[in-house]
């Protein structure tokens, strides 16, 4: 008997010795492993590796579902001011830590809504609203976000501060797409960035 035939025989014998309960447990373990691998792959595909926030791909996929579910939302696009000098002077490691800190602050402000890193030092968020309500909550959320980002941060013994230029596009139930809201918020952000005395601009 050659080695391959012997291995097949051994495997077959082991399988024959398995009880039904053992076989079920083995199959369940295999399924769990495959599901874990699939979940890990989904996470890597839909999230930013540095900050752990959702990425643009996930925004494009989840944004329409959020809009369809609530019908009312505010899309926020923000770009950091003062980040490049930190990155240039103190290196990419310090710059990366600044981005992670901003991402954490964005996540805490957004809470159960969607926080996104678009690219570089540009971030976004989708703030959902109830279909009915006396006043929208997004203005307070945007103000809290701007305030949180400006708080000083200490990295490797150095104190850093950044601010954000913020653009907001609001959908109050009118027919539109998440892509259009992102486009409007992005244009509003550039208007805010062009005016150094204005931290945020709402698309109108």
TrEMBL record:
Pfam families: GGDEF. Residues 1-12 have a biased composition (Polar residues). SMART domains: GGDEF (SM00267). Residues 71-204 form the GGDEF domain. CDD domains: GGDEF (cd01949). Residues 1-22 are annotated as: Disordered. PROSITE patterns: GGDEF. This is GGDEF domain-containing protein.
């Amino acid at each position: 008997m050659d080695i391959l035939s012997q291995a097949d025989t051994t495997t077959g014998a082991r399988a024959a010795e398995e009880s039904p309960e053992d076989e079920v447990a083995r199959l369940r373990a295999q399924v769990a492993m495959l599901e874990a691998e699939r979940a890990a792959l989904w996470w890597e595909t839909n999230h930013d590796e540095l900050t752990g926030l959702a990425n643009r791909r996930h925004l494009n996929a989840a944004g329409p579902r959020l809009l369809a579910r609530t019908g009312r939302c505010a899309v926020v696009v923000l770009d950091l001011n003062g980040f490049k000098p930190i990155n240039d002077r103190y290196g990419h490691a310090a710059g990366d830590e600044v981005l992670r800190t901003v991402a954490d602050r964005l996540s805490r402000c957004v809470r159960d809504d969607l926080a996104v890193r678009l690219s570089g030092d540009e971030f976004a968020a989708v703030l959902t609203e109830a279909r009915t309500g006396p006043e929208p909550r997004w203005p307070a959320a945007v103000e809290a976000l701007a305030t949180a980002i400006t708080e000083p941060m200490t990295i490797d013994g150095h104190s850093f501060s950044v601010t954000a230029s913020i653009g907001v596009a609001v959908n109050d139930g009118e027919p539109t797409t998440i892509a259009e809201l992102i486009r409007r918020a992005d244009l509003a952000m550039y208007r805010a960035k062009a005016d150094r005395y204005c931290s945020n601009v709402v698309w109108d």
